[in-house]
Amino acid sequence: MDMVGTMLTIIKTAPYGREDAFAGLRFSLSQIAAGMLETCDTLLIEDGVYNAKIDQDTAAIRMPSNLDATEDLLDLDGRVLVVREDMEARSLTPDDLLEGVEIISIAEMPGMMETYDAFATY
């Protein structure tokens, strides 16, 4: 049985309203913090791109900030990637995103995904 060495967590849901994005970000954090994988990167697609948007204020909805988890991933040297076309479809620009987030095109996804042993989707 082959061991998983590299994993990509794909988050396609908005930061608030459902627990999927919250769980996905914390899953990536747990994998990095545990040190059990060579790599655990996070890809934000569709409405998931909002998880990297700066200036999120969750006080009104009394929810933990997904922005904090995204920043923690970057602080732990985790890669956080955003699909440019999904970002642009939601009127976001690179200036709207956390520093350190990498922007890739949808055309780059298939080749990039071939480099991972396993995937988790939220």
Describe this structure in words.
By secondary structure, the protein is of the alpha/beta class. Helices cover 30% and strands 19% of the residues. The chain has a five-stranded parallel beta sheet with strand order 4-3-2-1-5. β2, α2 and β3 form a beta-alpha-beta unit. The chain is globular. It starts with 5 loop residues before the first strand and ends with a strand. The mean pLDDT is 91.
For the secondary structure, the number of strands is 5
SSE class: alpha/beta
Low-confidence stretches: none
Helix percentage range:
25-40%
How do the strands and helices of this protein lay out in sequence?
Blueprint: E1 6-11, H1 20-34, E2 39-44, H2 66-75, E3 80-83, H3 84-89, E4 102-104, H4 109-113, E5 118-121
Parallel strand pairs: 1-2, 1-5, 2-3, 3-4
Helix pairs in contact: 1-2
Summary, kept brief:
The protein has 122 residues and is of the alpha/beta class. The protein is 30% helix and 19% strand. The protein contains four helices and five strands; from the N terminus they run βαβαβαβαβ.
Keywords:
single chain, 30% helix, 5-stranded parallel β-sheet, alpha/beta, 122 residues, globular
